[in-house]
Amino acid sequence: MKINKFDKVTPKKALGQHFLHDQQIAQRIVDSLTLIPDGKKVLEIGPGMGVLTQYLLQKDIDLSVVEIDRESVDYLTKHFPQLNGREKIWNRDFLRMNNDQFYDGKEPFVLIGNLPYNISSPIFFKLMEMRDRIPQMVCMIQKEVAERIAAPHGNKTYGILSVLMQAFYKVEYLFTVNEGVFTPPPKVKSGVIRYTRLEQKDIGCDVTSFFKVVKAGFGTRRKMLRNALKSFNLSPELHEHYYMDKRAEQLSVQDFIILTNLVFPRQ
User: Fold this and answer.
1) Parallel, antiparallel or unpaired: strands 136-142 and 190-197
2) Closest alpha carbon to 109 in 57, 46, 32, 36
């Protein structure tokens, strides 16, 4: 069933969410999800009034959705009876859910969603915790954030999420979405971004240490790394390493992996 209007329901601007009403763009976003795991589990975050949901339900998948807004959940329950089963609609705050709640904490799933602008980064950090179970994600977020995550090293917008996401996923900025196709219209453009999990599971260093080094490096991004990483009590030899004359934005993902092994040698 296609939804061309909101059926007398006025969506709320909850948690910074803007509701897409352009059907062609909705179809294009759904079609960007190209990798479905064997169990066909697909999780949609923030379905709102179901503009993506309607197209997802046309596919041979097992769809569940997470939606914090009660009004939207009532709408989904009424208009999409396919979702009226156990654990098909979670009326929850995604960020407060336990990771094990999603498909018993075991089954792989792919993710799609028009993410609330003001919590998209925390959502990505949470999804990173489940990265070994998520082979692909397609998300619409604020254009500047999407560009930042997809940015290569050496770019001024390259940052923590750029490094962490690119260490585990192939990141593709797919297309830009203009303000006028949302209700209410946001003040900024949106970008659709796709993450496809890289084949290797071991990135070549301890992951916890990698996260620490990356976050510390960008914590004071204008400083050279010898100053940004001084809390790690660098050895005299490492203090003089040529990486230490650089700023975090100048290091590639592979450079950060090498740097992590220098700061925290693998046992």
Assistant:
1) antiparallel
2) 36
